[in-house]
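Form 12-C: Joint structure prediction
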Amino acid sequence: MNPANGPLGAVAGLGRAVAELFDRAGYTIVLLVRGTGWAFRKPRWRMTFSLMYDGGIQSLPVVAIVALFAGMIISLQTGIFLEQLGQGETVGRIVAQTFAREFGPFMTCIILVGTVVSAYAAEIGTMAVSEEVSALEVLSVRPASYLVAPRIVALTVMTFFLTVVADIIGVIGGGLVAMNQIGLPMDRYLENALDTLSGREWGYLPKDVYAGLMKASFTGWVMAGVGCAQGLQARGGALGVGRAVRTAVITSIVLTLIISYNFSWVAYQAFPS
Amino acid sequence: MIHVEGVTKTYGSKVVLDNLDLDVQDGETFVVIGKSGSGKSTLLRLMIGLTKPDSGRVVVLTKNVPRLSRKRLRRFRTKMGYLFQSGALVNWLTLAQNVALPLLENPNFPRKRIDAKVMEVLYRVGLYDAAHLMPDQLSGGMRKRGGLARSLVTDPQVMLYDEPTTGLDPVTAHAIDQLIIDLKQRTGVTSVVVSHDMEGAFRVADRIAMLYRGRIIATGTPDEIRLSADPVVHQFITGSLEGPLAEFAQKEEKS
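Section 2 - Result
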């Protein structure tokens, strides 16, 4: 038997996969740090605003529609149950907290993975396989400054604003259902919704809101790095670009979940007040 | 000007360059010919520091390129020009913006002179009227000339051309070759051209070298190469189906 096909081969294969995983993770972290550094040292405002428009503004309708229906669904599902318990009025609290803490940031990030992160990986991946990235290097143009930094800023900022939009529209969607299906007046619903958002540590901004927005922005920052890193590492023509996009999407979704859990733990377990 | 000594480069188990030695003189146009996949482009990438050799020295403009720090490599590259096979223009910038890019990234170049410099090089490559076009609106030949203009805008001391005429019709290929010749006559730039277009190679070259199995097996003037008795060189320049190149390819396919 060829040892390469036996248990030793499997261990070697696993070792190679783990080494490659660490290699790619290290590359992504270094690129994120470099790209962020260049965003401050040499801001490229025109390109950044253009990317914000392409990625952010054009994702706005999707985010709004998904948030609206998600708010309506949560309100309907919880409202029916709460009404049976005689607690119909609390539906506003549940929708607002769900959106501000978790659903708004998570939903926005997942939509942006599909619309923006995949586009970053595809654009930069195509540039890498068609030697455009090498051409930039030859021209002494740093890819971390020219390609990565504007994308990091654009996605970080747009994740923040789209999460604000998702939170507001989600709560309004929940209110519409509460009003029409449960018979709860909108002003009562909104009063409950706003009342429940805990803490007023930073001025009048509830902790639920700013913790959710910080989480969303941080996730956007990481996702931008993942998309760019996968694109820059693309090799081997169209197949390589496809592989880069797929890896960027999968990695970003998994990281969104991991960051979401850890951020929630820090915000509500480690620093509960 | 360019001195390559004992360079070996492998990709996985494949030895692409095997203890290769090469010298290019100041101001000459040196053409490297060889089969597809023989390591010609790798040789160019080594000269500009896009790839590092496993061993050996690559000295260009008195700098040992693989040993340069990132900062010094960037400074070194401002004296180099590189024409990629596809032109490699950035696809969201117009042709003029592409050509201006290296100047805009150079803080020492006067901003007021950028437009004039860009239009000057576009005029030299015959693309003055196409300055406002996007890369996807350009033909293959125009993209290559655009890439050439972008390389020339920094007045390089060494030009590297990666398959400058591949995929072009004979007339456009001839026009690109003429640009290479004109550039040399006008500026005295040292050029390394990688190609398997023999007609073009004979047209532009001061000297030609044949790369085979990771080594330079023959070097000479175009006439010396034309008259070479080496069976590999002879088969390559005549394009014959029978000979050592075909036998080697068959062996490679079997292995």
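Section 3 - Comments
The interface with chain A takes residues 45, 48, 50, 74-75, 77-78, 80, 82, 84-86, 88-91, 101-102, 105-106, 147, 150, 154 of chain B (CB under 8 Å). The CA atoms of residues 102 and 154 of chain B lie 7 Å apart.
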